[in-house]
Write a structure and sequence with these properties.
It contains 22 helices and 13 strands. With about 550 residues, it is α/β, with parallel strands linked by helices. Helix 18 crosses helix 20 and helix 20 packs antiparallel against helix 21.
Length: about 550
């Protein structure tokens, strides 16, 4: 991938005639419009819609006229002029809210493309190619994923990001091998032949016969592992339901088609993000019901709004917080904006009426027993009978026994639990070694949570809905520790199911002990993989 387009210097002045700069800007915008339109004509589905919308923005008179005005009135270079014009148009669209606010990102994308065209540089984003390739870059923006075709992109390699970053999560969802925080990949040149082993985290230049054979074997295995039979179980018949993480009705329908045994995480942010105002109860009911209808008779675990940190909402969160990851996010927004959570619970309850789904509800960012008790009370007031909490904060893991006296289940969000336990931002590449759920400290917190479910005469469900559940090797460890259900991207169901089916519960417990007693994350992973030869057999 080309490097991200850098901002032109503030106040950058023309050295030539304004009319030449205007002509250059018009030519560049037309070139970008034409290139995006051609890509849209050959695309399908969501990719086609994204490219068509972006192409229209490249020819938008408001944007181009704004740039021309800055060239003529302020003497700015065409690069600086379109940069400032793009910022103004994006702000205007954002302030309009709703659908128009969603188009602000398209404006900023087009702005970068026009600047790249003016500089004679490659356009940002995923390169266009008819030949399958391995995508190498600094990182993958969320917007890039709409145009990522997994039949063309064979694997992802990025120099930044961490194991729980957006790129890593998208790779799992698409079933692509990926390596993040890969040092030195900036020196790779386009056209270099490389071999990527996502499981080992290695890149080999100029691969030989061994690597080519392994790649062919992976192509065959990945096809075999694309089907899940719909029942998660160990070799001895011990059941471990395998559920799906979804972000809306479309995801839920796909997960049901992939034979997921329910939904272990419904991310309700999908009907809140990109809005300046809170969605109405009726709007929420319609959105949730689409998910419930996809899983009649099966469990659907709804996570209440997890706003804040990397998911700010204008009407709910404070963007000026000095440390938003440790600020008012998730359940805590009820402290500062009471009413939003209560209305969401009402909407979930209304959506559950008349459906056959078994609706469970959990709150993110619960830190204390009092918070768990308060949330359970809110659920009861709304008529929701199965309340639970996310265990993402280490204090919740330590206090799980007490917390579970007030709620019916817990679900471990291993992405956040890891970053909080290790004090390592999960998006930062330099901290990738710290930010892995293989860290013995994180595994011990999971063990404490599972142990808490078996005290004081109760044995309540303990699930994992973080990305750790999608790792087949780690899934065995989690079950051995005492986790009762696993929830993951639907693409991971078959691989996790196949590996779990190769061990008994006693063997899973022995393998978990290997990881729990390891001194380092690297050693924990190595011990477990050595005890699971099926991973190598399946190319995992």
């Amino acid at each position: 991938m080309p490097s991200p387009v850098s901002e032109p210097t503030v106040g950058e002045q023309l050295s030539g005639a304004p009319e030449d700069a205007v002509a250059a800007l018009r030519t560049a915008s037309k070139a970008v419009h034409s290139e995006l339109k051609n890509r849209a004509d050959g695309a399908k589905g969501a990719s086609k819609a994204v490219l068509e919308a972006t192409a229209l923005m490249a020819a938008d008179p408001l944007l181009i006229k704004g740039g021309i005005k800055l060239i003529n009135n302020s003497g700015l270079t065409p690069e600086r002029a379109i940069w400032e014009a793009g910022a103004s148009v994006a702000e205007m669209l954002h302030n309009l809210g709703g659908y128009m606010a969603e188009r602000a990102a398209d404006v900023l994308d087009v702005r970068a493309r026009i600047v790249a065209e003016l500089r004679g540089m490659p356009a940002p984003g995923i390169p266009l190619s008819d030949t399958p390739f391995i995508l190498v870059g600094e990182d993958l923006a969320p917007a890039d994923t709409a145009t990522l075709d997994p039949s063309i992109v064979l694997a992802l390699v990025t120099s930044s990001g961490g194991p729980q970053s957006h790129t890593a999560i998208i790779a799992r969802a698409l079933g692509l091998p990926a390596i993040v925080a890969a040092a030195g990949v900036e020196t790779l040149t386009d056209g270099t032949e490389i071999y990527v082993d996502g499981a080992a985290g290695t890149i080999t230049l100029n691969p030989g016969t061994t690597e080519r054979t392994a790649a062919e074997a992976w192509a065959t295995t990945s096809a075999i592992l694309s089907v899940f039979d719909g029942e998660g179980r160990l070799k001895d018949g011990h059941l471990v339901p395998l559920l799906a993480n979804v972000g809306g009705a479309k995801d839920a329908v796909k997960a049901a088609a992939a034979n997921a045994q329910g939904v272990g995480l419904l991310r309700t942010e999908f009907c809140f993000l990109g809005r300046d105002t809170e969605p109405t109860i009726d709007e929420q009911v319609e959105a949730y019901r689409g998910v419930f209808d996809a899983f009649p008779g099966k469990k659907v675990v709804v996570r209440t709004l997890d706003a804040g940190a990397d998911k700010p909402l204008p009407f709910l969160t404070d963007a000026s917080e000095p440390n938003p990851a440790l600020g008012v996010r998730g359940y805590r927004t009820d402290f500062t904006s009471p009413g939003v959570l209560e209305r969401q619970l009402q909407a979930i309850a209304l959506a559950a009426e008349g459906t056959e789904a078994l609706v469970w509800v959990m709150a993110p960012m619960i830190s204390t027993t009092d918070e768990a008790e308060h949330f359970a009370g809110m659920c009861a007031a709304a008529g929701l009978t199965i309340p639970g909490v996310m265990v993402e904060v280490p204090s919740a893991a330590i206090m799980s026994a007490s917390i579970l006296t007030h709620v019916e289940f817990v679900s471990l969000g291993t992405n956040d639990l890891t970053q909080y336990a290790m004090a390592a931002d999960r998006q930062l590449g330099p901290l990738a070694e710290l930010n892995t759920p293989w860290q013995p400290a994180v595994l011990q917190l999971i063990r404490l949570t599972a142990a808490g479910s078996e005290t004081e005469g109760h044995h309540k469900p303990v699930g994992v809905c973080g990305e750790a559940a999608a790792d087949p090797a780690l899934a065995v460890v989690l079950v051995g520790i005492g986790v009762t259900t696993l929830s993951m991207t639907a693409r991971s169901l078959s691989a996790v199911g196949a590996v779990l089916a190769s061990v008994t519960l006693a063997e899973a417990r022995d393998i978990a002990a290997l990881a729990l007693t390891a001194p380092t994350a690297t050693e924990a992973k190595a011990r477990v993989r050595a005890a699971l030869p099926i991973l190598a057999e399946l190319g995992l």
